[in-house]
Amino acid sequence: MAGQVKHKQIFSSIRPDWRLAKLLLNLRTRNTDVLLGAVAKVLGDEGIELISSTAFLEPLLAKEGVLTSRAPSEEEQRNIEYGLTVATGLAGFDIGQTVVIAAQACVAVEAMEGTDATIERAGELMKTLQETDRGHDASTLERRLTVVKLPKPKQDMRFDVPVIGLRTLETMIRAGANCLAIEAERTLLFDRDAIIRLAGEAEIAIVAIPRRY
Length: 213
What we know:
Elements: H1 18-25, H2 32-45, E1 65-66, H3 74-92, E2 98-102, E3 105-109, H4 115-133, E4 145-149, E5 163-164, H5 166-175, E6 177-183, E7 188-189, H6 192-202, E8 205-209
Parallel strand pairs: 4-6, 5-7, 6-8
Antiparallel strand pairs: 1-8, 2-3, 2-4
Helix pairs in contact: 4-5, 5-6
């Protein structure tokens, strides 16, 4: 399987055929793993075996370490450590993959809206705070945003593997996010050279942490 699956489409006006309707009605929950796992089972019943979605994309998997010329600052590293805790819990419940952190506080978490919309929401919140604070003393806390995106603890590599592309970086720039942490070996980097170049121009630090599970 390849390409984005928009989870929110289950609430759209699509008209399922009898097989999809039966599948949806029989699911106890309708999170990503359960939905795609059920689709995989239906395909398996027809003799179609799904393989890892990265089978032909292994060169695009992030390698461990700092990927940009700038490494995370001490403040960003603290955000990453806290973000890893939050993102791991979020991913464990199969709710979303992304959290946005500032000053070791969680600003936004991903649900059905997707990574880019989550980052945009965090950026809008910070802009609102800045507008509110105009004419007042500056906050003592750092407001620079750090984005952490992780796979699930038991990630099924057949589908929903985390992906970072140019649009993610462009969204981070608009939102005022300065650091991105992903997991090595289980995150795909599309247009890697362009991503690293854009990150350098925007002074964004990108780090691939060691695989956690």
